[in-house]
Amino acid sequence: MSFRQAVARHPLLAGxxxxxxxxxxxxxxxxxxxxxxxxxxxxxLEAAALGALAVLPMLMLLGTLAISGWEPYRALADQVRDFVxxxxxxxxxxxxxxxxxLAGVGEELLVRGVLQGWLTERWSPEWAIVAAAIxxxxxxxxxxxxxxxATVIGLxxxxxxxxxxxxxxxxxTHALYDWIVIxxxxxxxxxxxxxx
Length: 196
Known about the structure:
Blueprint: H1 3-9, H2 11-33, H3 45-53, H4 55-68, H5 71-88, H6 95-120, H7 125-139, H8 144-164, H9 167-187
Helix pairs in contact: 1-2, 2-6, 3-9, 6-7, 6-9, 7-8, 8-9
């Protein structure tokens, strides 16, 4: 069985493997670049609570788009909803939590911790945030609109990381957002409702 056939047959396992692989990749790149990721994570209840609270503006943006009735957004929401339903249709309990946590940890370590951290040492923090957000948007660009949406989310997460200096905050925000939105899609059967 080819790699492409394996991914087509087991897309959730492929997604989990990809997200999990980002964690050692981030750790290796951080070591090579001399970025002390462990010093940029404050394992505190306050940081986790701030990360949970910080998801609210992201959900408000998504909710505003969802109730706007804007046709390009509705088409994108339908596309994402179909993908989520297909991905998690036969998933075991806990699969949504696992992929949300892996995405939050892997993507934030790599994009905010390594890329934004490395760029901040070379550029101004503002340009580092913008560049990391664009890379984040490109990594999620299933369409032009989703690229824009993901880049805006990337800007928000980049500013949040810059202001707090704590990767745990953005990891919690990202993971909680993914967990909520995936569940929202899985419970949404009406083609006119949902988020991206």
